[in-house]
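Collaborator request, handled under Task 6.
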Amino acid sequence: MAAKSPQGGSSVQSELRIVILGNAGDDKNKVVKSILNRKNLTGVKVGQCTLHQRDPAGRRISVVEAPGWDRTSKQQSPENIKEEVERSVSLCPPGPHALLLVIGVETLSEEPSTNEITAAQTHMELLSECVWKHTILLFACDEGVEDTQIKKYICSAEKILDKCGGQYYVLQKSAQNHELLKKIDDLVEENGGDFFTPQAELIKLKTQEASGESELRQRRGSIADPPDLNKDKGDSVEKKETTEADKSVEDISKICMEFKKIGLIIVLILMGIVGALIGAVAGAEYGVLGSCIGLVLGIIVGIILASITKCMYTHIYSRSLKKPTDSSVNSG
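Structure tokens returned to the collaborator:
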């Protein structure tokens, strides 16, 4: 539920949840004191994080102070510190309205190195890229720090400022807690009262991973069960063998028919010769002339008989070929 700020500014949440992050040092503790407007803190340890709560003017403010990370490299931070950074946002359920990334501005120090800025960015992104929408870059200054030095720090952190949409705040005195809270409330209002939901981001990440694994399983399945090329090949070979067998039978049938035709011609010739011999022998009783006439008549009779035989054979042979064809048609 939102209400009007006492300063007459933007509307504020009846409950405000904040997570403080940064490298190792006392700067984060200074920020917590400023937000809660207390010199002495009595937080509750949860792992290596510390949970602070206060209810000023009926408004509950929860602040989680995460353990500091290595100043120059994410790789040099112990794994348990990385895990605590990831867990810190779950200690103020359902999620923090704002995350304050603290960079300490010390009196005698120069602007932060590129490694320090990169380390801060990579540690923040342990929480996902969406964290920048809820992040304010906070420069916690020592007493007596000059404005020129603060400007150098702001310029050095340009890369992170681009990530969090230019949201930053310079904390120089602990008495600035009203101004800092107003800066946080402005960010919450800009986000429409929304807060960072680590569980939703985790679900989204797991969904993407599951989708990727499902797609990978489908690809593996297609590789593991390729088309049965051997089966197609077997069908092709079988079809080819059947065709060749049919062709061989057809060739044999043609050869048999040719032999039968030749045999029929030989039979005709033999019958003609036999008829001629019979005619010649029968006409020999009448002399040479009778023998010649008998030879001619024998040839003619032999040819006639051979023709009759050929017709009968052709008719019978044709019927024997036609019957299987007819039966096959009727069965179809």
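The cover message to the collaborator said: "The first strand starts at residue 2 and ends at 4. Confidence is low (pLDDT under 50) at residues 4-10, 323-332. Please let us know whether this matches your experimental observations."
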